[in-house]
Amino acid sequence: MALSLNPIAFSLGPIPVHWYGIILGSAALFGLFLAIREGKRFGIPSDFFMDLLLIGVPSAIIGARIYYVAFKWDYYSQNPAEIIQIWQGGIAIYGALIGAIIAAFFYVRAKGYNFWRIVDICAPGLIAGQMIGRWGNFMNQEAHGGEVTESFLRDTLHLPNFIVNQMNIDGVYYHPTFLYESVWNLAGLLLLFVLRRRPFLRAGEQFMAYFIWYGLGRFFIEALRTDSLAFTGPDWLAAVVRGLWSPMTILFEEGNMSYGNIRVSQMLSVLIIIGAILFIVIRRVKGYAAVRYADPIVSSKAPSDPAADTKPGRKDEQSGSAGDGAADRV
């Protein structure tokens, strides 16, 4: 029988270096590259995004851990010493997003930029990072779905040997949900690339499109997993969630839940999708979405040019040309 891949890439003396960490680091750097490249179109210095990453990554880790511990509080309240033992596993992507967004909000505001303009630029980097990061779960043989047959992986999905072999855990084959989500995120990345060049896109809507796309995929993929955070909710709510997922039963069986009747990520995905759609619609209806994605981005704390301000009519001309240039770029 083929052996699974070693989750440890190499060792530095007594310190093992895991593929999981290497992959997550690569994901963060690729996301940074995408943000810096797009930021150059708007004249935003690369140092801004580097600092944002340095602040966002630890905030994401803290948020991911707090989120996970909160939904496992019955256990951690009895074992408080394990709360900080993140190396034992136990983080959640939605918690990471919450932590990173909170940190980004204060950092962006401190730099004088509009929050929605910056997160629009970062949205492709976020989904690209998630696309790559899921391969860390692959190396650790975690975050997989329920049991499947080897034939399903080889003959139905036509997966290469290295994936099929890695999905064989203790003699049982499982759904490669990491792969489903990675491919879904790749499609989302391409969608965001196309969307940000459309003339109808307003500030904040690229970020909301990311949430809608990711939330939609996560809702359907999450139900295949067997390690979901869950809670016990009213039967009618559980029935609604199962009803929304029911079209998937044509192809897949829902993964078993070890407790509860509603998966947290599924419920949160639904709320995020609804919230993102309402955000777009309300801002459009109320007239708050006047700024386009392609419009210039200027920091309120950027130093002004005294010489330019003293020239008659110069300020108005600059303002008008900036708007015209934005329209041309659209």
TrEMBL record:
Compartments, as annotated in UniProt: Cell membrane
Binding-site positions, a 1,2-diacyl-sn-glycero-3-phospho-(1'-sn-glycerol): R134
Membrane-spanning residues: 17-36, 48-71, 91-108, 115-133, 177-195, 207-224, 264-282
EC number: 2.5.1.145
Annotated InterPro entries: Lgt
Membrane topology: Multi-pass membrane protein
Pathway membership, UniProt: Protein modification; lipoprotein biosynthesis (diacylglyceryl transfer)
An annotated Gene Ontology molecular function: phosphatidylglycerol-prolipoprotein diacylglyceryl transferase activity
One GO term (biological process): lipoprotein biosynthetic process
Annotated region described as Disordered, given as residue ranges: 299-330
GO cellular component: plasma membrane
Keywords tagged on the record: Cell membrane, Lipoprotein, Membrane, Transferase, Transmembrane, Transmembrane helix
Function (record text): Catalyzes the transfer of the diacylglyceryl group from phosphatidylglycerol to the sulfhydryl group of the N-terminal cysteine of a prolipoprotein, the first step in the formation of mature lipoproteins.
Entry's family note: Belongs to the Lgt family.
PANTHER family, per the entry: PHOSPHATIDYLGLYCEROL--PROLIPOPROTEIN DIACYLGLYCERYL TRANSFERASE, PROLIPOPROTEIN DIACYLGLYCERYL TRANSFERASE
The name this protein goes by in its record: Phosphatidylglycerol--prolipoprotein diacylglyceryl transferase
Species for this entry: Paenibacillus contaminans
Biological classification of the source: Bacteria, Bacillati, Bacillota, Bacilli, Bacillales
